Structure formats: structure tokens, C-alpha cells
Amino acid sequence: MAEIPEEYVKNRIFVIDKPCGPTSHQVASWVKNMLKVKIAGHGGTLDPGVSGVLVIGTDKAAQALHYLLYDTKEYIVAAKFHSNVTREDLEPVLTNFRGDIYQLPPIRAAVKRALRIRRIHKLEILDISDRFVLFDVVSDAGTYIRTLVRDIGDATGIGAHMEDLRRIRTGPFTEKEAVNLYTLKDSIQFCMEGDCSMLSKISRSLDSVFTTFPSVVVREKAESAIAYGANLYRGGIYSSDPFNPGDIVSIHNKSGVVIAAGKALKVENNKPVVDIEIVFVDSKKYKKIWKTGQ
Length: 294
What we know:
The protein has helices at about 25-35, 60-65, 85-95, 145-155, 180-190, 195-200, 220-225, and strands spanning about 10-20, 40, 50-60, 70-80, 100-105, 115-130, 130-140, 160-170, 175, 205, 215-220, 230-235, 235-240, 250, 260-265, 270-280. It is of the alpha+beta class. The protein has 3 domains: about 5-70 and about 175-210, 2-Layer Sandwich (Pseudouridine synthase); about 70-170, 2-Layer Sandwich (Alpha-Beta Plaits), CATH 3.30.70; about 215-285, Roll (Archaeosine Trna-guanine Transglycosylase, Chain: A, domain 4).
């Protein structure tokens, strides 16, 4: 039986609808084994009991998923309050949880327990039935939704805990494009038998990670220099979206392919404009077409 053509699996993004039960790491490992790739990583952990959008990248695309930490995530949350609650009870309390909030990671969290600030961009009630409330939450990456529900319950004086949670969006990737593991397995099987149309349809390019960030198109000379580890200077920019110091910026060549990503710096004479953090292209494919010191 034929192997999967490299262009369908290398440096690709797969939006998986994670089921309840396995860990995010297990799902990424299964995808890695199914695709027969060397590297596969996920863009944001979901607890075993949580379902929804789990973005998985292969090879260089796995590195790109780091930038999803700078984007928002959206959840549908089922909370159970410890006595009946009404919209009138909740709305004044929710006002205090929109915007920047302080959170202390749970004891079981795999991060240092230090007070952190996270932004709640959206917190809306979708439905209420006696003690049960359905929320739509858009938050910064790294927000603990279980902790958010508990804190809301404490603020009402009633108490509450999270009953169920589903992630419906991670950055630009939504549940509408997510596929389950069975669909991925079928698409791989079809591809190995000669029909890769389904696998092509359900995968995304590395570039798709950066659709919500400003992009910069660079000249050929700058493209080569970046491939060898240089930062981006103003003279190397061919065209650009507006961006500010501190913004994450994706770097593209004139063909529209993302070649690198980094953080924008303050524009100063003879200083880099973008601090390149990750290069996605192989420097061996480029000739050194610049002179040292220029």
C-alpha cells in the first residue's frame, strides 16, 4: 500500500474535535502515529473530561502553534449553582468578571501557582434552568474556566461548579472545521489508496495560524537573510499591514508563503523592525545574497 504523499502531512495543521476521555497529549500522539510524521504538537491543552477544538500541527507547524497563546479561545460552559439562580441574580455579578481578572492556577495545574492576569473578552448567559446556567466565554489563552465558574459562584454567595465544558474556537480555528479522529483515519486510508482529496480538505497550511496577526511581505534579499537567522530591518520590507511595537508579526515572501514570525520592535534608525523568533524555511534552500555589514 502506498505511503501518504509528504505534501499532505508535512508542516500541516489539523483541527481535531477532541472527545472526552483522552488527554490532549494522547490525541496528538494518535494523530502523529496515523500521519506517520516525526513531530506533532497541540495548541492548548484540554483536560481529559473536556471536548472540542484541539489544534494539532506537524513538524514546523507544531512550532507555529506557540503563537496561538497570543490569541483568544471560546468555550461553551455548563455551570451548576448550588441553589436556583436567575438572570437578574447573575448579570450584576458578571459585570465584575468581564475584562481583566486575577486567577490563581489550581493546585493540580502543570504551571507555577502564581497570581496571573487574564482577560475575559466575552461572558454571556445563553440559557438558565433552575440551578443550571449555560455560558458563552471568550478569554485569553491560559484562562482556567473551572476556576472562573467557581469564582462567579462565590461572588453570588450561592456557590457554583463547572458541570461540562466544550471549546468551540482556538484563535482562528473553529468547531465548524474540526473533524473527529475517525474522519481523519478514513481520510488517511483513502489517501493511501490514491484519493487524497479528503485529507487535503481537512488539513490547513502553516500560514493559517497567523490569519489574525499583522503580516509583512519582505524582499528577496531580506528573505534570504531571515532564513539564515537575521532580524528584519525596514529596508527589507516590500509591503506591510499596520503594526505596533509588541505585536506578533508573520513574515511572508512575495509568493505569500509564511517564512518566519516574530515580535515587532520600536522603529529606530539602523535597528531591526521585527525580532525574528521562529524561522519556518530551510536556510539550505537559499543562497547568501547579501554582504556582511550591510
